[in-house]
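The material for today's practical consists of a large collection of protein records. A record pairs a protein's sequence with a compact description of its fold. Instead of coordinates, the fold is spelled out as a row of discrete tokens. We will come back to this pairing of sequence and fold again and again. Here is such a record, shown just as it appears in the course material.
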Amino acid sequence: MAVNTPQGQGGVFWEINITPLTDIFLVLLIIFMVTASVAVESATHVDLPSAAITTPENKGVIVTYTANHELFVNSKDVPEREFEPVLHDALSRVDAKVVIFQGDRMVLLGDMVRILDIAKMAGADQIAIAAKRATPTGNGSGATSS
């Protein structure tokens, strides 16, 4: 933008208005923050199997295993090679030595047995498998048939 100098000499100088640039950066920052939080939430999604009768369990340590072979101990991402010491540490901080396993429907049985075996070696006295309550129709989809 060409403007006259304040001295009135008729010279031209360029100045950069950073207000629109700052607005753009703030909008991009907000977009990045929203998409990052959605990406983190969707990355740890576990599609639990359904069960007719479920009881809430709020004691113990929650171990989550996703379909992408990611392990979480109490919502903390843990590499598989560090799983046993991290789980042992988490179990030492709770009174009830119960491991609650949340596995995706796509988890192979062999992976689940291996993880639960490591949980036993880490000091778990009991193991629970998490499930979501099935719909009254029993088919898990919520649709009724006629």
About this structure: The longest helix spans residues 19-43.
